[in-house]
Amino acid sequence: MPSATGKTVILGSGGTIAGTAANAADAVGYTAAQLGVECLVAAVPALADVALECEQVAQVDSKDMTHAVWQRLAQRCAHHLVRDDVTGVVVTHGTDTLEETAYFLHRVLAPSRPLVLTAAMRPATSLQADGPQNLLDAVTVSRSGPGGVAVVLAGVAHAAADVRKLHGWRLDAFGSGDAGALGVIEAGRWRAFRTVPPGAARGLETIAGDPAAWPRVEVVTSHAGASGRVVDALRALGVDGLVVAATGSGTVHAELAAALQRARDAGVAVRVVSRCAFGPAIDVASGAVDARTPWQMRVDLLLELLAARASGAAARR
Ligand code: SIN
To answer: Which of 49, 9, 38, 67 is nearest to 207 (CA)?
Structure first.
């Protein structure tokens, strides 16, 4: 077990890790977000002697994640991460939007202390429950792993900037692709593979306003048969930003491209990234590469529009 003397704060937000089913053999027909965070900790005897503090921040199935929960999570993480008696923070979460929340916290807080998100692919009542080991591993990383935002599942830690959910069923559902994992937890010990330079934090002040009034940023996909009509409809509805999940290295269907130009002309901010699981969008003119996922770019555009709104400047189209 970790040697750090400070506390690990565990923030509960729901997910399958807190899910229950009537039948222990049922790993599909369960209800996510049922058990409180104290209950998750109680299921891990090895945590009994670790200095912990628990707080329930939300209780949601992460497919239903909201900007309001993101704001509250970021505020509570920031609150605990600056405490003198806290070594690191762990967030229990659903797997479905785990990578989005991790990236959001990374871009807002870029903490120097460990902020570790964990989850489970099987509910707490399952014969195959992976939550207890994942939680134990996450606590280990929070006490002896690197600073910054990491995601820990199946004994592997991934950086928030690289992690993707790659599989809908397997217990090792997450990967970091070309970048590779941050490290592993082996027999309760952290072993690092690489380090990650700290990112620049947007800061809590960027997300201070009422989430109901945050800019509207939607993701549209370039695909065979695209007409661009969805873009025209979103523009008519007053969307503020559009992220295009483009084909290959960032190519866009001609019909969709024409509609996106109409959106730009109307003041909508448009960003293009690749819909491929790994591999960047490449800007042919400048040679710039961008390996962000559509969901990561959505977070960045949202934060950019919030910052522009606060400063009174117009965002780049
Ligand atoms: C969720 O994302 O909250 C449900 C699914 C999961 O955690 O695997």
So the answer is: 67
